[in-house]
Amino acid sequence: MSFSLTDILQRSSARHDHLCPRQVLGARIGLAGLSALGLEAPVNKFTALVIIESDGCFADGVEAATGATVGHRTLHINDFGKVAATFSDVKTGRSVRVSPALDARDRVLLYAPHEPRRYFAQLLGYQIMPEAELLRCQEVTLNPSLEVLISKPAVRATCDYCGEEIINEREIIVDGITLCRTCANDGYYLIEPSSAQICAVVNHQSK
After folding, report:
1. 3-state class of 69 per DSSP?
2. pLDDT tens for residues 139-165?
3. I need a surface site. Which of 44, 71, 109, 121 has the fewest CB within 10 A?
4. For residue 87, which of 123, 52, 134 has the smallest C-alpha distance?
């Protein structure tokens, strides 16, 4: 199934309450990534995995163009703070990374010469700028591999330290001990030493 850029931007803006340049970039990148691999939207777990490198407006554009979602495990977010996305063909294992050309932000102004406001010049220009000038597409190898990223969602493990359940094969084995990423010092948070006691006090007071 194919959708026009106009249709995609309408869907994206409806979810986001407005249309902005990064949504347009997300939509253009989404379309380019699928085209480079010969895939069609909406993608599913048997056809593609999309990895985006930032959240926010850009993500809405990519989702609208590809149909990839976090809930269906066809969309992963690795927040590197970049407007870029990698598309992987599940059947062939081939992956391409699509990002704006390094000079796209300046060159886009040539496509909206009568718009003095830079924001709106980008909003209009990104929609009509030729793909070859707007984007660059690179063949890449995923690290970790596509198989590891997709994993086996039915597999479960239990962290030997904190006791919490771990799904999607995200456990780490250290000296024969099964650990979640946080307990293996690879998490995104640190537990405050007094937090368990604080939670207990709050729960008691709320009764």
Report:
1. coil
2. 999 999 999 999 988 899 999 999 999
3. 71
4. 52
SS3 label, residue 86: strand
Token couple for 145: 């591999």
Does domain 5-145 fall into CATH 1.20.1510.10? Answer: no
What amino acid is encoded at 45 in this protein?
K
- What are the tokens at 110? 């040539």
Instruction: Decide: 74 and 68 in contact? Cβ < 8 Å.
Output: yes
| 57: three-class secondary structure by DSSP | helix
Domain extents in the chain: 5-145, 151-206
Question: Predicted confidence band at 134 (pLDDT cuts at 50, 70, 90)?
Answer: very high
pLDDT band at 201 (very low <50, low <70, confident <90, very high): very low
Tokens standing for residue 114: 């009568």
What CA–CA distances, in Å, run from 190 to 57, 77, 195?
Answer: 29, 21, 11
Distances in whole angstroms, Cα of residue 24 to Cα of each of 33, 50, 89, 108, 126 = 14, 17, 23, 12, 6
Per-residue tokens: 33: 């990534």
